[in-house]
Amino acid sequence: MDRTLKISKIKDGTVIDHIPAGKALKVLNIINIGENNSISIGIKVPSNKMREKDVIKIENRFLEKIELDKIAMIAPNASISIIKNYDIIEKFSVDLPQKIIGILKCNNQNCITNAGEPVNSEFNLVSSNPLTVKCVYCKREMADNEIINNL
Ligand SMILES: Nc1ncnc2c1ncn2[C@@H]1O[C@H](COP(=O)(O)OP(=O)(O)OP(=O)(O)O)[C@@H](O)[C@H]1O
Ligand SMILES: [Mg+2]
Ligand SMILES: [Zn+2]
User: Fold this and answer.
1) Which one of 7, 47, 81, 84 would you pick to mutate in the ligand 1 pocket, going by the greatest count of ligand atoms within 8 A of its CB?
2) Which of these CATH numbers, 1.10.10.10, 1.10.287.3510, 2.30.30.20, 3.40.190.10, describes 99-148?
3) Which tens digit of pLDDT belongs to each residue from 80-91?
4) SS3 for 1?
5) Cα-to-centroid distance, 96 and ligand 2 (Å)
């Protein structure tokens, strides 16, 4: 008896693989899903590389730079596979940017970037593990979940 349950392949779209176990829903939160974007999610599935991982497969959707940068902050070791006609035509790892501009809200309510002024938020990467960034304007440091909750 076959005891495995396989998710069917996607024809065209994106696979986000090697997401830390339990973080898939956080990743989904930052992606806008349209009408013809079918999604399959594996949560806490066994993996050779990580023991357990999450994986997301999105049909008919290719990610933008801003989405890839956000994914890097949630899942620094995620790998992205671009699928065309059932084959992987491109595969790459996400990359943490040294400067994070306009995509993360500063946790300091008194920061100039939260004052309704036309100022883009801007952070420098302080450390990648544990993930820590520092606001260029108010110097507030943010880490891990604080970052994820402000994406
Ligand atoms: N047509 C497809 N539809 C859905 N998922 C696919 C398709 N083709 C590949 N994948 C998935 O894309 C990911 C990367 O595929 P690949 O064959 O490179 O995996 P791998 O050999 O396990 O590599 P890795 O070392 O990254 O784990 C895997 O999760 C695989 O299941
Ligand atoms: Mg694999
Ligand atoms: Zn700030």
Assistant:
1) 81
2) 2.30.30.20
3) 999 999 999 999
4) coil
5) 22
